[in-house]
Automatic annotation (TrEMBL):
This is Uncharacterized protein. The chain crosses the membrane at residues 103-121, 147-165, 172-190, 196-213, 225-242, 248-265. The keyword Transmembrane helix applies. Keywords: Membrane, Transmembrane, Transmembrane helix. It comes from the Bacteria. It comes from Sutcliffiella horikoshii.
Length: 273
């Protein structure tokens, strides 16, 4: 059994009385934030209110008014310090939340930055193929401007479709799900970054197809028709620009892989707006 401490009990009652006089506490806090010191008149008024309430209970008669006032001032200073610390923690959490909002699509941002750097590098080098590629057998060489256009449209596709998947699965899992279909079919393509990117986007098409079908399992993607419209546009543009290089089988395979992944892997969020 614990030891009864009457002074500690009195301090507790004083702290409770602070909540009974919110306007007085608010005025004291505002003045303290401005002047960095307690306003004697406001504190004295609060002390009188608390002492009157305490004197209604004879249990505190052994304490003089001076002792109670001293304890009130001590508890008031402790209360102010806790309020300042609480406000600082709230500000820190708010700033952390703002930072989180800024980088919450870190996977999409990382991929976009990589593609932009690669695009700039290829423009400077004027070589949109890997040095190990041998494309002499191809009947029609792709114009560099066409590949730049496809890279740009691919980046837009990533910005348009990536955040939804990243919100549902998280950044790390999103990167894994985005790259896996494209990397699996990449050896069966001509070995260009554009085709790798389109293989990854084809995997995303399969993923969105799976998520659209899986609505009955409680997964909802609002305005998914906009994404499907964009996919159709990108497919048509890719076929038009690639021409004889267009090979549908790796892309269909990537889409099937994405579809299977959407069935096997459970999302963290089931409703995405």
């Amino acid at each position: 059994m614990g030891i009864y401490n009457q002074e500690l009990n009195l301090r507790t009652h004083i702290s409770k009385h602070f909540h009974l006089h919110p306007k007085s506490i608010e005025h004291i806090l505002k003045d303290y934030h401005v002047n960095s010191s307690l306003n004697h008149a406001l504190v004295s008024s609060l002390k009188e209110k608390i002492i009157i309430n305490l004197r209604n209970h004879k249990v505190w008669d052994r304490y003089s008014d001076e002792e109670i006032e001293r304890l009130i001032e001590q508890e008031l200073r402790n209360y102010i310090e806790r309020s300042i610390t609480s406000n600082q923690n709230l500000i820190a959490r708010t700033n952390a939340n703002k930072l989180y909002i800024t980088i919450r699509y870190s996977g999409t941002v990382l991929l976009t930055i990589f593609l932009l750097i690669y695009t700039v590098y290829q423009v400077m080098e004027k070589d949109l193929y890997h040095s190990i590629n041998n494309i002499q057998y191809i009947k029609r060489v792709i114009d560099p401007s066409d590949i730049l256009l496809l890279l740009f449209i691919g980046i837009v596709s990533l910005l348009f479709t990536g955040p939804l998947l990243e919100k549902m699965y998280g950044s790390v899992k999103f990167l894994y799900l985005f790259f896996l279909p494209g990397c699996i079919v990449f050896p069966f393509q001509n070995g260009t970054i554009v085709e790798l990117l389109f293989g990854c986007i084809s995997g995303s098409i399969g993923f969105y197809l799976g998520l659209t079908v899986l609505r009955r399992r409680g997964i909802t993607l609002n305005k998914v028709w906009m994404i499907w419209g964009y996919f159709c546009f990108y497919l048509a543009l890719f076929y038009y620009k690639i021409g004889v290089l267009f090979d549908p089988f790796p892309l269909i395979s990537a889409s099937i892989i994405g579809l299977l992944l959407s069935i096997w892997i459970k999302p963290k969020v089931h409703v995405v707006k």
